[in-house]
Every structure is written in C-alpha cells, then in structure tokens.
C-alpha cells in the first residue's frame, strides 16, 4: 500500500514537472514514455495526472486502466517504476544534504569569522567550499534568507520546478 502511494506521488510530481516543461516548448526533455504519446493520449493522460480532486489511489487505478485502454500497460509499468526509482534517489539525495548541512555550516562560519579575508577572498573561499558542498552551501544561504528576508518565508509550494503548484 505504502509503495503504491509513493508511486503515485512520484508520477504526479514528475509529470507535473514534465508537463510544465512541455508548456515551455522543451519537449526534448520529456521522458520517452510521454514523448511517445499521441496528442489524444497525452491529453487523456494528463487529464488524470493533473486532476487535483481524486485520491492518489484513484489516480493510480485510473492510470493503470488508461494504460490498458491504450495498450501501453507494459510501458506505463516501466515508466512508473522509473519514476519510483527517481523519487527514491531524490529522497536519498535530500537526506544526504541534510546529513552534511551541519558540517557545511561549520566551514561557512569559519570563513565568515576570518576577519583577515577581503570580501573577494571570502567569496573565493565560499566558492571553494561549494566544491565539497555543492547543495549544502546554497541550502544554507536559502535558510539564511528565510531570516534575512522574512517575506521569502511564504514560499510554500514552490518546490516543483517552475512552481506550477502555485497556479493550481
Ligand atoms: C518510444 O518510441 C520509440 C520508437 O517507437 C521506441 O523505440 C521506444 O521504446 C519508445 N519508448 C517508450 C518508453 O515507450
Ligand atoms: C496491443 O499491443 C499488442 C502487442 O504490441 C499488439 O499485438 C496489438 O495489436 C495491440 N492492440 C491494439 C488494440 O492496439
Ligand atoms: C526507464 O529508464 C530506463 C533507463 O533510464 C530507460 O532506458 C527507459 O526508456 C525508461 N522507460 C520508460 C518507460 O520511461
Ligand atoms: C543524486 O545525487 C547523485 C550524486 O550527487 C547525482 O549523481 C544524481 O543525479 C542525483 N539524483 C537526482 C535524481 O537528482
Ligand atoms: C515567517 O512568517 C511568520 C508569519 O508569517 C512569522 O511569524 C515568522 O517569524 C517568520 N519566520 C521567519 C524565520 O522570519
């Protein structure tokens, strides 16, 4: 049950991203599964995927049925699996970033505490740290921004690329 739910979340979010890219005419970035759909298949597929008023379980059932009706069960199952794997990888990556955040902050604090540095040198040191902590440093600055610019504090729902969830 848990697995099925997470598959749905994955498909929904991933397709949302894919679809907003499509709107911006970047069809080349779509997964092959979506790229291969006919216009009518695409429209019925996203009609289900983007429906915000049905449960994720219902969405999964409808998509499985849709795939059967379109003779795409095998491809859809593989696509679904790919999305699950992708989502798990993202989740693992997020956990990794969280695990390294404290260590990255120690390093950033050290640089900021070194008054012998010029602004240029400090920026260079931070850039250097980004090689070790490519996601962690920007994340720390993002967190800092929540306090320095409290208005950014309302960025709930902007986690999808293109922030499409804002428009719903
Ligand atoms: C997409 O279509 C191409 C060409 O027909 C096919 O080779 C490929 O396997 C399809 N990919 C998916 C994911 O359905
Ligand atoms: C469904 O796919 C199978 C195997 O690819 C094919 O033989 C069959 O003709 C397809 N049926 C329809 C209705 O497209
Ligand atoms: C699933 O991922 C594999 C490996 O990345 C890729 O070759 C395949 O086309 C994908 N299949 C679908 C249906 O998206
Ligand atoms: C997860 O992190 C690895 C290592 O940094 C990276 O290669 C991979 O692309 C990331 N996966 C995703 C889905 O972002
Ligand atoms: C975020 O906003 C809420 C109210 O909108 C405020 O009470 C809180 O102090 C803000 N948090 C930060 C870190 O600025």
UniProtKB/TrEMBL annotation:
<keyword id="KW-0732">Signal</keyword>
<dbReference type="Pfam" id="PF02520">
    <property type="entry name" value="ANIS5_cation-bd"/>
</dbReference>
<feature type="signal peptide">
    <location>
        <begin position="1"/>
        <end position="20"/>
    </location>
</feature>
<dbReference type="InterPro" id="IPR003677">
    <property type="entry name" value="ANIS5_cation-bd"/>
</dbReference>
<dbReference type="InterPro" id="IPR052823">
    <property type="entry name" value="SXP/RAL-2_related"/>
</dbReference>
<feature type="domain" description="SXP/RAL-2 family protein Ani s 5-like cation-binding">
    <location>
        <begin position="41"/>
        <end position="144"/>
    </location>
</feature>
<protein>
    <submittedName>
        <fullName>SXP/RAL-2 family protein Ani s 5-like cation-binding domain-containing protein</fullName>
    </submittedName>
</protein>
